[in-house]
Design brief:
Helices cover 32% and strands 18% of the residues. With 391 residues, it is α/β, with parallel strands linked by helices. The strands form 2 sheets. Strands 1, 2, 5, 6, 7, 8, 9, 10, 11, 12 and 13 form an 11-stranded mixed beta sheet that branches. The chain is globular, with a radius of gyration of 20 Å.
């Protein structure tokens, strides 16, 4: 059974609409990238911010008001007309919502805790439910009027990718006829402090696979798709998931879990690795992740053009898999055959096996038909998605 992904709704450091994201992606420009200590007082860091205005949620119940949900509302507004058309003949109970997130409304919780420390009481505009991990799916289900299964997946950096795989399984199983799926994460002090404690955050633009790489940039954003059986431009042709069980925060250095996920995704898609036209690397610019990922791809498809787009979006954590799926969607549907570029210093690490990186302005030598996106998370949690162009 073929499962199709609609044109995505997306908001991130690349822009606040699909058209803006397309233009800035292929130009290698990220207007939302800036250096600030807003989320790390006393230490300025390079972050991928959403700078476009977001929907006002003040008319919603207090429990639904969060920046995370505003990002979701902005992405959903872009696909709502298509959703209303697609769902017109479908019972609400047959429509699912699956969202990946690692932050939910933690930023609102942080502000409330700080206010309580100052004033001795919780602020009137805070509700604990704002930061529940189930909040994003609950909010989107109410926004769309969907009454089928609705849940949030929170598996750190694989959340958004796993949400798309989970939604595909729901549709393929016949449990639902349509799903809204993707991911959303908003910036907050909690994630910056956590990654900083691991000495994994770079103060400057991240530099994936470079000999000078020194850590990640955190970003925020959201991307949503309609997942269903109605034919569209792009299919979710395959997915793979695995677990290293190697270390709580470090990947298996041999890349065995990553390869297991990649191979499973390719097998489901019925493709050999050399059939791929583009790879979106996880590419966090940390020492260990890049070394593991370079080894894995050198063993499968070192000549396939690829890029880490995190220097353009920041690492959006629970939203990363969904946002990078949207960038693959753009690559497969671009009439000029442009590919997402990697911004870096072009100083490869001689200790890593060589890969083929896409430069700004590069175009595919043939019409791209198949793309792979990888996501690797804490605990050795791995996900890979294969997307195929449908003519």
């Amino acid at each position: 059974m073929n499962i199709f992904l609609s044109e995505p709704g997306i908001v991130c450091a690349l822009g606040g609409s699909l058209a803006e994201v397309r233009e800035n992606l292929f130009a290698g420009s990220a207007p939302g990238f800036c250096t600030t200590d807003r989320y790390s007082p006393g230490r300025a860091l390079s972050l991928g911010l959403v700078t476009t205005p977001l929907p006002d949620l003040r008319a919603w119940p207090l429990a639904e008001r969060s920046r995370n949900n505003a990002l979701i509302a902005a992405a959903f507004a872009q696909i709502e007309p298509a959703f209303r058309r697609a769902s017109a003949a479908i019972a609400p109970e047959r429509i699912a919502v699956v969202i990946g997130s690692s932050t939910s409304g933690i930023a609102e919780g942080e502000a409330a805790v700080a206010a309580r420390a100052r004033c001795g009481q919780w602020p009137a505009d805070f509700d604990y439910a704002q930061q529940e991990l189930g909040a994003p799916a609950r909010f989107l289900a109410r926004l769309a009027g969907a009454k089928g299964p609705a849940y949030t997946i929170s598996t750190a950096c694989t959340s958004g990718a796993k949400a798309l795989a989970a939604a595909t399984r729901l549709v393929r199983s016949g449990m639902v006829d349509l799903a809204i799926a993707g991911g959303a994460d908003s910036l907050c002090r909690f994630t910056l402090a956590g990654f900083s404690s691991l000495q994994a955050v770079s103060a400057t633009r991240c530099n994936p696979f470079s000999v000078k790489r020194d850590g990640i940039n955190i970003g925020e954003g959201a991307a949503l798709f309609l997942v269903g059986r109605v034919a569209g431009a792009v299919r979710l042709a395959g997915w793979g998931e695995s677990s290293d069980a190697h270390h709580i925060s470090a990947p298996d250095p041999q890349g065995r879990g990553a390869l297991a996920a990649i191979d499973a995704a390719l097998a489901r898609a019925g493709l050999a690795a050399d059939a791929l036209d583009y790879v979106n690397f996880h590419g966090t610019a940390t020492r260990q992740n890049d070394a593991m990922e370079a080894l894995a791809f050198a063993r499968r498809c070192p000549q396939v053009p690829g890029s880490s787009t995190k220097p353009l979006t920041g690492h959006t954590l629970g939203a990363a898999g969904a946002i990078e799926a949207a960038l693959c969607w753009l690559a497969l549907t671009d009439h000029a055959q442009r590919l997402p570029p990697q911004l870096w210093d072009f100083e490869p690490d001689s200790e890593l096996p060589p890969l083929t990186f896409v430069e700004v302005g590069a175009r595919a030598q043939r019409t791209p038909r198949h793309a792979l996106s990888t996501s690797f998370a804490f605990g050795g949690n791995n996900a890979a998605l294969v997307f195929s162009r449908h003519d």
